[in-house]
Design the sequence.
């Protein structure tokens, strides 16, 4: 087992900087598209043999130091009681979003063994053969709430903020249920064999720092604190984190994942007790090999001031990315960081 990633999570010195890529299993890989051509996305997530197969693809093809479970942050939300559909161009849609107290009261806290057995089975299959650690994941409560309230992806998160400002009681009761579901879901993933977990707070950066502190941070912290006794590294990825990173770093995670809009040196200062993960702009993978190398080296250099560094993109890889450039990036990180 290549444990470089786990050591870096714990802040230990490693022979080289481990690297994995957010959304590393996906449409930019022809090998993924081949399997995806036969089944729709949700079926792929819910068929353990296929989900395990696409999880392993980037490990074999790119040589990354960790695998991330193939699933989606919306899978446990569906089981709380929302009707989920994925549309080819428009993305995910919930046809019965949460807008009233009644809507929230109808939601249940999931029982992972009964509600998402396929996720746990995928993890068990993967743990039998993987040569790198497996990362389990979930949406952070605020990011999950945006999908549940908006009914899909959003630009301004207006309905979510409307509830935060105008119906704090509804917001709190919804967030408590999401946090409990997230704790149950991630605990089950860890019990099934996930060796680390990542909370994706993809939309936390849409909040002002003070709204983040009251409406998102306490629930992320609650999840992280509940998982601590299970003794696996916890990564908290906060997208668009520049204005809220100092607060987010107090949530108790072992690793802070950061996007590319913040300079790595500044991110390290704001997260000094943590391992840092990030933060290449996914669009740099559309440039030349020379530019990819130059940018990666700069990040590696700045991240040396952190207790440890896990190289990653600053957000998910884009579907149009040339796979050979991703492979080049992984090689560059491994070679340049080797001691
Ligand atoms: O390789 C991996 O990282 C594991 C798989 C993974 C997926 N989604 C698969 C996926 C992970 C970790 C996610 C997380 C996820 N899902 C997030 C948080 C990360 C982020 O990017 O901010 C969010 C916000 C979602 C919700 C989601 N899923 C949206 C908005 C969409 C549609 C947009 C899109 O990219 O198509 C998805 C679909 C999705 N999730 C795909 C994949 C591979 C594409 C589906 C397909 O194959 O057609």
Sequence:
């Amino acid at each position: 087992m290549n444990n470089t990633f786990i050591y870096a999570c714990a802040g230990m010195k490693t022979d080289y900087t481990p690297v994995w890529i957010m959304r590393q299993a996906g449409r930019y890989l022809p090998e993924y598209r081949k399997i995806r051509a036969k089944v729709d996305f949700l079926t792929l997530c819910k068929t353990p043999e296929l989900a395990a197969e696409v999880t392993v693809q980037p490990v074999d093809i790119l040589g990354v130091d960790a695998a991330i479970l193939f699933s989606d942050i919306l899978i446990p939300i569906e089981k709380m009681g929302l009707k989920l559909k994925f549309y080819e161009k428009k993305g995910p849609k919930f046809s019965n979003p949460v807008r009233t107290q009644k809507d929230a009261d109808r939601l249940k806290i999931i029982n992972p063994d009964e509600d998402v057995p396929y996720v746990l089975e995928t993890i068990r299959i993967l743990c039998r053969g993987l040569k790198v650690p497996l990362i389990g994941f979930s949406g952070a409560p605020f990011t999950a709430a945006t999908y549940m309230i908006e009914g899909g992806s959003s630009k301004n998160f207006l309905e979510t903020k409307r509830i935060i400002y105008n119906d704090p009681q509804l917001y709190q009761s919804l967030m408590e249920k999401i946090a409990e579901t997230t704790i149950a879901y991630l605990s089950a993933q860890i019990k099934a064999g996930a060796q680390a977990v990542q909370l994706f707070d993809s939309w936390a950066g849409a909040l002002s720092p003070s709204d983040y502190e009251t409406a998102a941070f306490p629930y992320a912290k609650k999840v992280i604190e509940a998982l601590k006794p299970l003794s696996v590294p916890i990564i908290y990825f906060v997208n668009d984190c520049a204005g809220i990173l100092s607060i987010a770093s107090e949530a108790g995670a072992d690793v802070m994942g950061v996007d590319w809009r913040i300079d790595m040196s500044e991110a390290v200062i704001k997260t000094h007790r943590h391992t840092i993960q990030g933060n290449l702009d996914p669009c740099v993978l559309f440039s030349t090999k020379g530019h990819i190398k130059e940018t990666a080296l700069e990040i590696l250099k700045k991240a040396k001031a952190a207790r440890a560094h896990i190289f990653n993109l600053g957000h998910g890889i884009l579907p149009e990315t040339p796979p050979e450039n991703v492979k080049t990036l992984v090689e560059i990180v491994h070679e340049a960081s080797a001691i």
Remarks:
- The pocket of coproporphyrinogen III is lined by residues 22-27, 36, 41, 68, 70, 72-74, 91-92, 137, 153, 200, 202, 315-316 (CB under 6 Å).
- The chain has one domain: 4-337.
- The longest helix spans residues 168-192.
